[in-house]
C-alpha cells in the first residue's frame, strides 16, 4: 500500500515511517498541513495518517480542506485528545477512523488495512442550507438571508448540529454530549446560556424565528 503521513513531530514521523516501511508499504512523509494537502491532491494514496495537532493549521481544518477539494482518500486521524467532542469533530470533518496516542503499531496497521478496503466515499457535504440559513464547513462561515452571522466556534458547532438535525427536537443531553463532549450532566445552565446567545444572533435581528424551544424537551430548528 501507498501511505501518506502528515505529522510534524520528527520522532513520531520517524516511528510511523519505519513501522509502515517494515510492513512493506510505500510511505511519503509531510511535516506541514499545506504540504500534505498538496500531496494528497496530486498523488494517489491508499490512505492518509493525519496528526490532529499541526503547526499553522489544525488537522481537522486540513481535513475539511481536503474533503472540500473532493479528496476521498481514507484518513486515519491521530490525536492525544481524549474528549468525545474532539473525536466527533474529526469524524464529522471526514476522518474514517480515529486513533489515540500513544498507540501500538500493530493496531495502526490493522486500522489502515480496514479503512483502505472500504469503498470509496462520496465527497463530503461541505455546505448546508436550511431555510434562510446557510453554512460552509470549510470556511466556517454562517449566513442568514445572505447576511454573515458573527458566531464563535462553539456557536458555529451548535448551529451546524441543529441544521444537521433540522425538524428534530434535539435534547439538552444530546447537545452536551455531541457539542461539548460531556458524558454527564454538569448541572449548569451551560446549554441554555449558549443557546440564548446563538438565538440572539440567528433570530433576534430578523422577523422570523427559526430556532424554537420545546418546553421540557429541547430545541428544534426549522
UniProtKB/TrEMBL annotation:
Gene3D superfamilies: 3.40.50.2300, 6.10.250.690, Winged helix-like DNA-binding domain superfamily/Winged helix DNA-binding domain (1.10.10.10). Residues 125-222 bind DNA. InterPro entries: CheY-like_superfamily (IPR011006), OmpR/PhoB-type_DNA-bd (IPR001867), Sig_transdc_resp-reg_C-effctor (IPR016032), Sig_transdc_resp-reg_receiver (IPR001789), WalR-like (IPR039420), WH-like_DNA-bd_sf (IPR036388). GO terms for biological process: regulation of DNA-templated transcription. Residues 125-222 form the OmpR/PhoB-type domain. SMART domains: REC, Trans_reg_C. The modification 4-aspartylphosphate is found at residue 51. Residues 2-116 form the Response regulatory domain. GO terms for molecular function: phosphorelay response regulator activity; transcription cis-regulatory region binding. Pfam families: Response_reg, Trans_reg_C. Coiled coil: none annotated. It comes from the Bacteria. Keywords: DNA-binding, Phosphoprotein, Transcription, Transcription regulation, Two-component regulatory system. GO terms for cellular component: cytosol; protein-DNA complex. PANTHER family: REGULATOR OF RPOS, TWO-COMPONENT RESPONSE REGULATOR. This is Transcriptional regulatory protein CusR. It comes from Pseudooctadecabacter jejudonensis. The gene is cusR.
Amino acid at each position: 500500500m501507498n501511505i501518506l503521513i502528515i505529522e510534524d513531530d520528527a520522532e513520531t514521523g520517524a516511528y510511523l515511517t519505519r513501522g509502515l516501511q517494515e510492513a512493506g508499504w510505500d510511505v511519503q512523509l509531510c511535516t506541514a498541513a499545506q504540504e500534505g494537502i498538496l500531496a494528497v491532491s496530486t498523488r494517489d494514496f491508499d490512505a492518509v495518517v493525519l496528526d490532529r495537532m499541526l503547526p499553522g493549521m489544525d488537522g481537522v481544518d486540513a481535513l475539511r480542506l481536503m474533503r472540500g477539494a473532493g479528496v476521498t482518500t481514507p484518513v486515519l486521524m491521530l490525536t492525544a485528545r481524549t474528549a468525545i467532542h474532539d473525536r466527533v469533530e474529526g469524524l464529522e470533518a471526514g476522518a474514517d477512523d480515529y486513533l489515540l496516542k500513544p498507540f501500538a503499531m500493530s493496531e495502526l496497521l490493522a486500522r489502515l488495512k480496514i479503512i483502505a478496503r472500504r469503498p470509496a466515499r462520496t465527497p463530503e457535504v461541505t455546505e448546508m442550507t436550511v431555510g434562510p440559513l446557510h453554512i460552509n464547513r470549510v470556511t466556517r462561515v454562517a449566513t442568514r438571508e445572505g447576511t454573515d452571522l458573527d458566531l464563535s466556534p462553539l456557536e458555529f458547532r451548535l448551529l451546524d448540529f441543529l441544521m444537521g438535525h433540522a425538524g428534530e427536537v434535539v435534547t439538552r443531553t444530546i447537545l452536551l454530549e455531541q457539542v461539548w463532549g460531556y458524558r454527564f450532566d454538569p448541572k449548569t445552565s451551560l446549554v441554555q446560556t449558549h443557546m440564548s446567545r446563538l438565538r440572539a444572533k440567528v433570530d433576534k435581528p430578523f422577523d422570523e424565528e427559526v430556532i424554537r424551544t420545546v418546553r421540557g424537551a429541547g430545541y428544534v430548528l426549522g
